[in-house]
Amino acid sequence: MSEILAEVTRSGVVESQHSGHVVLLNADGTILLSLGNPQAPIFPRSTIKAIQASAMIRSGLTLEPRLLALVAASHSGAKMHQEGALEILASVGLNENALLNATDKPLGEDERRAWGSQPPTSLAQNCSGKHSGMLATCVINNWPLDSYLDPSHPLQIACRTELETLAQEKVSLTSIDGCGAPLFMLSLNGLARAIHNITVSQDPIHQEVLQACRDYPEMVAGEGRLTTRMMREIPGLFMKEGAEGVEVGSLADGSTFVFKIDDGSWRAFGPLVVAALEKFGISATPEETPIYGGNKIVGSIRAIL
């Protein structure tokens, strides 16, 4: 029941297609556009990190905006990101050894190249900010540290409750995310409602988290990445990507876009985000995604919205 969302062209011919599902909500939460199956159950992956961060703040975590944005991040693994995670840990007397997230090399292309042959670490992995925030929240509440990734842990129950409240929908399945944290399944519509509701919420916690992300987009992603570029360009935009082709974004008035690409690819994200913003009357710098033939550009990726 998915629909074609983007086409890859070469010499004027459609060579490949990316299908999936899209929901766009107006500022008042009504549906502006729905493609594919809006009730499709999906794993939102890292797109809900701002919601998880909200649950941590509600549970007593206190951080400056720069570090709060890092808790809501899928960071590139730059020095500022890794040092920021260490700051969060040190604030409650912990160090890198407390992290239980998966090990990896940096997510950012430049950062990964600079990393070279060094072994992967939990600190370099893109979710180390979130995990540092989780651990700090546990220390503040005297919750166990060695089981903070268990779905039945008080921290994870708080994260699930925050998501369900904002989505106005119960989680249908709990799995494990790539970083090792619990992963909550809900519908695409539910994810759209959650992003819309956290954006328009008058709850000071929700406002604090989203504003931190808007103020420090380089912490939410990293230099050169789509999320950071778009949030810098469009005032009031909140945006967050997730693994396996999930993307969310909202404007300050509550206008919201959410999409899931069937094949899990990120390569159509740029054109799709620009096209979604155009539906809300926002002109963004075109995201050129060139297709090369040798050293020449012979095609592109175009959104079909």
Report on this model:
The protein has helices spanning 49-58, 65-71, 79-90, 109-115, 128-141, 154-167, 188-200, 204-215, 217-220, 226-233, 269-279; strands spanning 3-10, 13-25, 31-35, 41-42, 173-176, 182-187, 238-242, 246-250, 256-261, 290-293, 296-303. It has 305 residues and is an alpha+beta fold. The strands form two sheets. Strands 1, 2, 3, 7, 8, 9, 10 and 11 form an eight-stranded antiparallel beta sheet that branches.
Short summary:
The chain is an alpha+beta fold and 305 residues long. The protein has helices spanning 49-58, 65-71, 79-90, 109-115, 128-141, 154-167, 188-200, 204-215, 217-220, 226-233, 269-279, and strands at 3-10, 13-25, 31-35, 41-42, 173-176, 182-187, 238-242, 246-250, 256-261, 290-293, 296-303.
